Amino acid sequence: MIQRVRSLLVPGLVALGLLVPAFGADAQDPASLFQFRLANPGARSLGFGGAFAALADDATAAYANPAGLVQLVDPEISVELRVTVFSADEIADDRDASGLGFAAFVLPRKKWAVAVYETQLLQVSSIFAGGFTLGPFLGSGTTGSVQVKNQGLAGAYRWSENFSIGLGISRFEGEFSSTSELAFDPPRSRFLLVRTTEDLDVSFNAGFLWNLPGRWDLGGFFRQGPRFGLASDLIAGPTSEVQPPLTILDSTTGIPLDLPNLYGLGIAYESKNGGMTASFEWDHISPSASFRAAEELHLGLELLVLRTSPVIALRLGVWGDPDRRPDKQVFTPSLVPMGFDDIHTSIGVGLAFKSLKLDLAVDQSSRVDTVSFSMVYAF
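Predicted structure:
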């Protein structure tokens, strides 16, 4: 009897189990725990609701729009600390992340500037406490972690008095790990689906900044997303009676996990007395093996409430985080983020001394909250 069950069960699990990571019919795919946010680093940008392409006036421009680096006057060191708290629900917990979000050194000159930086796109561990069903097969008890870092070099050149261009190159490091439990007639036939990768990729970004008449600025950027290769193993579980425990039943390598390319265009306006700055940005998320195309809209406002030292600024922002899931009918076995349409609101405050700038921002939505603190020292 066991031999008969084995002959019928194992081929089905091998075929179907490799599809489970991308099967999102119940929105309970373990991949949904890994929510890649494509927002810019930095508390100033966060306070503007991410509408930063046409501003790009601090060190985070190296990532957001490198053309803006020529706006800096003195060499500076920039550091950001970021805390991200994902909302708890019935299927997941332990999804808080904190740490160094961004660090950079910028060396500006009269017509050019260079920057070296590191930013962390994501670092989070997850526990998937719910279950999903695929025909007669059941899944539950998933754990996983993901981390994506980026070290970059960016430069900018002032082409004319009112127009600058920028270019950067980035080295991405991706580490992913996820273990899902599958079962047929549990507990006699438990299996583990293990997905892992430690991969590197190199990509580039570019941008422009155009100072228009009437205190308007126009900025745009392109950011190439990295591509990682994922491995997937289907393993007989420790209580399996169908196959010897921990036997590898099937392995697949080179499964694509692509972060998408981004195009963005923004416009900003500063009032004549400099007391108010408004910024708008449109971002296009290109489709990839792991994402479908989507659009993001960002809007931000800054008011100077004190112009003596220290200068004090208040910021407000709003932006939409779209559902970036691939078509549910397309099985793509990868750790893609299963997003949801979400509206974010942000508020921030900035203090500017002669050589020191401090910025604090809070971004809130129904699914994730972010707190960012940035410090910039110019010398």
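Summary: Helices lie at 2-17, 43-47, 61-64.
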